[in-house]
Design a protein that fits this description.
Keywords: ATP-binding, Cell cycle, Cell division, Cell shape, Cell wall biogenesis/degradation, Cytoplasm, Ligase, Nucleotide-binding, Peptidoglycan synthesis
Protein name: UDP-N-acetylmuramoylalanine--D-glutamate ligase
CATH architecture of the largest domain: 3-Layer(aba) Sandwich
Largest sheet: 6 strands, parallel
Family: Belongs to the MurCDEF family.
Distance between the termini: 61 Å
Domain Mur ligase central: 111-281
Structural class: alpha/beta
Radius of gyration: 23 Å
CATH topology of the largest domain: UDP-N-acetylmuramoyl-L-alanine:D-glutamate ligase
Shape: globular
Strand order of the largest sheet: 7-8-6-9-10-11
CATH class of the largest domain: Alpha Beta
Subcellular location: Cytoplasm
Helix content: 25-40%
Length: 441
Amino acid sequence: MIYNYSNKKILILGMGLTGISCINFFLKQGVKPKIIDESKHPVLLEKIPKNIEYRLGTLNHKWILESDLIIISPGISSFIPILVHARSLGIEIISDIELFSRETNIPIISITGTNGKSTVSKMVEKIAKKSGYKALLGGNIGIPALEMLDEKADLYILELSSFQLENIFMLKSKIAVVLNISEDHINRYPKGFKQYQETKLSIYEKAEICIIHVKHQVKSNIYNKNFKKWITFGGKKSDYQVYCNKKNAILCHNNKKIFELKKTSLYGYHNYENALVALAISDMMKFPRNCVIDVIKNFSSLPHRFQVIHKAKGIEWINDSKSTNVNSTQVALNSLNITGTIRLLLGGDRKSANFSILKNNFEKLKIKIYCFGKDGEYLSKICKKKSIYVNTLTQAMQLIKKEVVSGDTVLLSPGCSSLDQFSSFEERGDLFTKITKEIIS
């Protein structure tokens, strides 16, 4: 189907990188859209071409109800009243990913999950390139999807958040995978976790090959849908498995050993499972196994994702600032096997998530929890005898400096959004790294 936007009134919501990419896309088509941003002073305002009309400060504008087509940026909720009303009037609301998917017939690998999607996406990109493909990575990581249309490619890899999946209808992936689903962004979804879960699983709707975590088979009614092919991971009886013992972890396919992970720098079961999914995707794409193994063997953790930033004098310092939900903190804690004290930095905006699931971990572990930020006081009450509340990450690190001893691990795995005190999780992780270097010097 060829889409013609020339006679439509087009409105873009959000003036971030996604919004700018949408403006550029339509201008190349000879179409002049309008754009609105909630902020009165958007950072990228100077990137807006002078001939584009814009409004700032609120989304509640008559332009919305006058539009034929609205492109919504992922940072804007699909459930705000004026957009719900617009849909009831038959106004089409889509994401930039939907726009992108309408414009290409090149194979797409679509990857989502509460945790791990960036790591798997980068692994697959490296494997594809090593296998001789001109592969481009975009979406929630790398460049906005629409910008990839400007380059020649054999393969697109899309990392997709639930926010991006809310307004996708025609995404026909060659391969789609949901790595995991755990409680996150509950404040975004009016119907709570179930709606978040359904949004994630919608990635499978038009996929050719579905790679499915065994935990999600029943929840997604995956076998009741007419998919061409599906394969499973994450269980002893699945198609792809990770076998672990105290000394090693092994990637397996149909119980056949493929690769020993002790030969890599990967750390923690979550990363072993990430490598497993990269293997499964690669097999479905028929990438050479030697390329797959070589990339996994030499793959280093991405910044801010359970990244060991220093290890000396018997103390390990781990930057897991990308931990923005409770499950990611739980995974990080389960990945540690130490005799000393875990000094956990926990805090930020919990996004209405239930952190009581950590109580059992806290009670079993030799741990001290330094809670900070918007919901730090709430978090400190989960396990009062092992917790302390301070206002900022810097104050928490000052306490740790006085208390840390050989054998301890200092773990920044906040489990919360950083936006209460930082511009991003990267800024939060950079501050942790900076203070760590000051302490160890």
